[in-house]
Amino acid sequence: MRRERKRMKSRIYVREYGGSPDDPVLRERAGDLPLQLPDGWTEGIRWKKSRQRILAWLLLGQAIEERFGYSFAQLDIRRGGEGKPYSAAHPEIYFNISHCDTAYACIVGTAPVGIDVERKFSPKDGLVRKVCHPEEFARLERMGQEARTGQFRYLWSLKEAFVKMDGRGLGYGMDRVNFAPFLPVQTELGKPVRRNLGEAEFVICDHENYTLAACEMQDGAGRE
Predict the structure, then answer these.
(1) Does 71 lie in the same domain as 30?
(2) What is the pLDDT of residues 47-70, one digit of tens each?
(3) For the chain, which has fewer Cβ within 10 Å, the N-terminal or C-terminal residue?
(4) Are residues 82 and 165 in the same domain?
């Protein structure tokens, strides 16, 4: 019997950058967040990346408080063996964040989740070969250059979201994850597309300034 699929229960939040890049309030609030920042994080290019992370974590804090009514302090956030943050006090709450040069995002829910937001970029052939499963690469090879670039962006975000949800991280090998059944992904700017693969549900969204993908493990499912 085919199991009925449920609509994704998790909530996705995404924002584009605004305000002053040198906002001193962000520097002050960083100390209250459960994130690790490198030495010299307030200087030069390190501040740009740190600012992205701070904003993403602040968005996550707002999302968790809105959805579940908890603060970071109440969650007791720790990191697993592969570095993925989790709530020791409320393990029933799942979350993930992502950020890039154009936007930052998070996803919160009650099942394992992952999210990736990426600026629009043009991949080199070597990266496409390295990241793609052979079936994905074969499908991309039959497309024109413009379509191939757009479809690879979807694949990249899908793969990142999946390995982050799964907890294995990028070290698992993005070429081992096969999204060929999704190709070609048909999208309209600003309108999310929903797909299912295995025990996970995915949302893909194309925006003028970024590509976003998020995923949620179906209830009762777990990784092998």
Answers:
(1) yes
(2) 999 999 999 999 999 999 999 999
(3) N
(4) no
Based on the fold, state whether residues 183 and 197 are members of the same structural domain. Answer: yes
* Structural domains of the chain, count: 2
Per DSSP, which regions of 128-199 are E strands?
193-197
* Residues 136, 187 share a domain: yes
- Bridge partners (DSSP) of residue 106 are 13, 97
Give the pairing of strands 94-99 and 103-109.
Answer: antiparallel
3-class secondary structure, 42:
coil
Q: Domain span at residue 35?
A: 10-110
For the whole prediction, is pTM greater than 0.85?
Answer: yes
d(CA 60, CA 33): 10
Q: What single-letter amino acid sits at 161?
A: A
Residues 52 and 85 in one domain: yes
With vertex at residue 89, the alpha carbon angle to CA 86 and CA 93, rounded to the nearest 5 degrees, is 50
Q: How confident is the model over 134-159, as pLDDT tens digits?
A: 999 999 999 999 999 999 999 999 99
As a whole number of angstroms, the distance between CA 137 and CA 87 comes to 38
Q: Alpha-carbon dihedral of residues 129, 131, 136, 139, nearest 10 degrees?
A: -40
